[in-house]
Design goal:
With 196 residues, the chain is mostly beta strands. The chain contains no helices and 19 strands. Strands 1, 2, 4, 6, 8, 9 and 11 form a seven-stranded parallel β-sheet that branches. The protein has a five-stranded parallel β-sheet with strand order 3-5-7-10-13, with no helix packed on it. Strands 15-16-19 form a three-stranded antiparallel β-sheet, with no helix packed on it. The protein is elongated and about 70 Å long.
Length: 196
């Protein structure tokens, strides 16, 4: 295992089967050398790790990115808008990654469910970019149509749905007012009763 902070000068080593190179990004930003990695681990929460624009990177055994909540590992190109190329292994572990300008030359990599985001210009990476939708339905002594008058209480049910391949619905928030201008801050858990 070779662990680098990013400020070292290292001649390209011979990386044998089973070898691991870890960049912890202590000195940020760090430019990752375009070596032929076996296992490449990027464990640098809140740090920026740069990849040389246009260069070819590979990891034949495993690729791991480990950030934390609120401290994503930012993977960037040394030239904004110019992709760096990555030939991935079959073993991939992503957590709290912020990716930009990356061209995955292998099988599509799914970052869905990893708390990771795309900052744009990524090829062959899959992120959950479609927000879930919440649909209201209501009853008032039977079926009820919104924007119609009733002299009975109305029970409103909120149903959240995500797109196919999405990460699902976490929490639905709502608010009630007569001007339709409030900010949703109340957590929805059961139907809401609106009395007349």
């Amino acid at each position: 295992t070779l662990q680098l902070q990013g400020n070292e000068t290292v001649t390209a080593p011979t990386l044998n089967a089973g070898s691991t190179v870890i960049f912890n990004g202590h000195t940020s930003p760090v430019t990752i050398p375009d070596w032929d990695y076996k296992t490449l681990t990027l464990s640098a929460p809140g740090k920026t790790l740069n990849f040389t624009a246009g260069a070819d990177y590979s990891a034949s055994t495993a690729f791991n990115v480990a950030g934390t909540a609120g401290n994503l590992v930012a993977l960037r190109s040394t030239e904004t808008g110019t992709q760096w190329n990555f030939s991935p292994p079959s073993s991939i572990s992503l957590s709290y990654m912020d990716l930009k300008d990356s061209n995955n030359t292998g099988t599509e990599i799914s970052a869905i469910g990893t708390n990771s985001v795309s900052s744009g210009n990524n090829t062959n990476w899959l992120f959950d970019a479609v927000a879930p939708t919440t649909t209201p339905t209501a009853t008032s002594n039977g079926a009820y149509t919104f924007n119609t008058w009733t002299n009975s209480a109305v029970s409103v049910t909120l149903t959240c749905a995500d797109n196919a391949g999405g990460t699902g619905c976490s929490t639905t928030y709502y608010c009630t007012d007569t001007a339709n201008s409030c900010t949703p801050t109340t957590t929805y858990s059961t139907p809401i009763t609106i009395s007349t």
